Amino acid sequence: MRRSALWMRVGWGGWLWAATAPGARDTAEDERCPAFWWGLLLGLPLAVLVWLWWRMQCGESASSAPLPEKRPIDLTDLPAAPPPTSPAPASADDLRRIEGIGPKVAALLRDAGIQTYAQLAASEQQHLAQILVAAGLHFIDPGTWPEQAALAVQGDWAALDVLQGALKGGRRV
Questions:
Q1: What total of structural domains would you count in the chain?
Q2: Helix, strand, coil tally for the chain in percent (to 5)
Q3: Is position 129 within any domain?
Q4: pLDDT per residue over 46-63, tens digit each?
Q5: In a domain, 70, yes or no
Q6: Which one, 53, 58, 65, 171, has the greatest CB density within 10 A?
């Protein structure tokens, strides 16, 4: 098959005009014109130019957008924690013993005035949820925390262990 001119598709969608010498013998396509290399030679710079043009048209990319500034947590809008039913001990309890409360949440509860198991047991679930939402921790469920804290106040650690065995992340499974 002899042709004096041939349009060939190359590279990333570009077209290349490839002329063959009259009388050239029929050879494999890759011997007459290395289409891949022509496509790479023409397509790569073209792709870079299109990317640069697109970036200029769209302005700055989303990855270089400034991050929102962090604001301190304002707990003054929350209602005050209910008063403890029993006198508070001289030192605060380790609230991390409650399933679902880690160091960050324990510090948050201390800042909100809940420092003992008795105060946590007397707290309502809605109040605890408001504290968590104000801190941006809306995905944490404090539903079983007062129940666990009540067992800790009573000193019933065996019952607390049984209850915590049925929980995962402070939620019933």
A1: 2
A2: 45, 10, 45
A3: yes
A4: 888 988 888 888 765 555
A5: no
A6: 171
Is there a single domain that holds both residue 56 and residue 114? Answer: no
Give me Rg for the CA atoms of the chain: 35
Backbone angles phi, psi at 58, to 5 degrees: -90, -5
pLDDT for 167: 81
Q: What is the pTM for the complete model shown?
A: 0.48
- In a domain, residue 30? The reply is yes
Provide CB contacts within 8 A for 166, sequence distance 6+: 172, 173
Domain that holds residue 155: 95-172
Does residue 55 sit in the same domain as residue 116? no
Dist. CA 61–CA 152, nearest whole Å: 53
Across the chain, which distance is largest between two alpha carbons, in Å?
Answer: 106
Q: Which residues pair with 10 in a beta bridge?
A: 14
